[in-house]
Structures are given as C-alpha cells and as structure tokens.
C-alpha cells in the first residue's frame, strides 16, 4: 500500500466507508499483531491489543501525519500491550488462593517435604549448610554478608551456593522427592 493510498483509505474510513476500514485493518493488522507478539502476549491478549488499537484510531478522527499511520499503530499497540502486561502483574489468579489452603493432605505432604529438606541441609558440609541457613533468613542475607560470615571472597558466594544447591538436589532426588 503506497503512502497516497494509505492517506486516501484513512480519510475514507473516517468518513464512514466500511470498505476502507476493512482494507486498512486487513493491510495493517499484521503490524499491530507483530508488536503484541513481541511482548509475548498470548493469542487472546494479542487480539485484544489489536482491537483496542483500531478502536483508538477510530475514536481519534485525525492524525497530524496520516502517512505515518503504521508507526502510530505500532506505538499505540506497544502502549496497549504494556497496559495488558501491567494489569497481569496486578492480577492474582484464583488458583493461587486455593493452592494456599492447607488441607490435611497438603499439611502432611508439606511436613514430609520440610523434614526431608531439613535432613538434606543437615548433610551439607558446615560452610554450605551455614550459607543455606543465611539464604533462608527473612530477608535473605546479601552476598556481602554471607562472604563476611563464612570468611570467603564475595565472588565465591555464588559458586558455593551452586554447589550446595546441587548437593541438595541430588540428595532429594536420591530420596524420591519429585519437585515438579
């Protein structure tokens, strides 16, 4: 679609020509959907972003630079996608509420898991055990605090943590704990 065709289609669409709207949507929705997909939105959210972007254009009724419509659509779609992502961050899925309920079965399983984890931590060498304890504090100790406590270089905290977690994982797997 050339710049002239784009400007003409947009003018006709704003005058109420449904075929012009259809041509614009058909020709440029790919731009909007590409932006939505770049934000890793699922199909439903991507199509909502697309629809809301076109509604915004229909309500606008004027662009300073009609030839820049594809850029305007991309910018508007990006803003719509960011709104969707922000709203998702504030949502708490209902399943999470139910998952927090401690039924008798969950209490038993959680107790067994916790006991197994305590036994696994007790099997760690003393420096790794202390590191895990420091990480389990609320709030967790910083790398600088851990390094000072253990008398090691701050750059050694990460590798020591990795070795401790690897040992814990192997212990738990050897004792039949399935973390999935």
Description:
With 180 residues, the chain is an all-alpha fold. Helix content is 76%, strand content 0%. It contains 9 helices and no strands. The chain has helices at residues 3-14, 18-38, 43-60, 69-90, 94-99, 104-122, 126-135, 143-150, 154-174. Helix 2 packs across helix 4.
Distance between the termini: 51 Å
Instruction: Summarize the biggest pleated sheet.
Output: none
Helicity, as a percent range: over 70%
Let me know the average pLDDT.
Answer: 87
Sketch the topology as an H/E string, one letter per element: HHHHHHHHH
Q: What's the number of helices?
A: 9
Q: Uncertain regions: pLDDT < 50 for 5+ in a row?
A: none
Strand fraction:
under 5%
> What is Rg?
28 Å
Tertiary shape: elongated
Structural class: mainly alpha
Number of strands: 0
Task: Summarize the helices and strands and which ones pair or pack.
Elements: H1 3-14, H2 18-38, H3 43-60, H4 69-90, H5 94-99, H6 104-122, H7 126-135, H8 143-150, H9 154-174
Helix pairs in contact: 1-2, 2-3, 2-4, 3-4, 6-9, 7-9, 8-9
């Amino acid at each position: 679609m050339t710049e002239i065709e784009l400007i003409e289609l947009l003018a006709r669409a704003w005058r109420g020509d449904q075929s012009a709207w259809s041509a614009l949507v058909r020709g440029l929705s790919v731009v909007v959907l590409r932006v939505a997909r770049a934000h890793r939105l699922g199909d439903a959210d991507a199509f909502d972003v697309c629809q809301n972007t076109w509604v915004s254009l229909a309500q606008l009724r004027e662009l300073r630079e009609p030839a820049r419509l594809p850029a305007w659509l991309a910018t508007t779609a990006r803003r719509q996608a960011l709104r969707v992502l922000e709203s998702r961050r504030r949502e708490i899925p209902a399943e999470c509420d139910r998952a927090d309920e401690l039924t008798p079965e969950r209490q038993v399983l959680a107790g067994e898991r916790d006991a197994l984890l305590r036994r696994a931590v007790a099997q760690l060498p003393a420096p790794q055990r202390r590191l895990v304890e420091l990480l389990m504090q609320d709030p967790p100790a910083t790398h600088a605090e851990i390094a000072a406590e253990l008398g090691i270089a701050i750059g050694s905290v990460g590798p020591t943590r990795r070795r401790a977690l690897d040992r814990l994982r192997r212990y738990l797997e050897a004792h039949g704990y399935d973390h999935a």
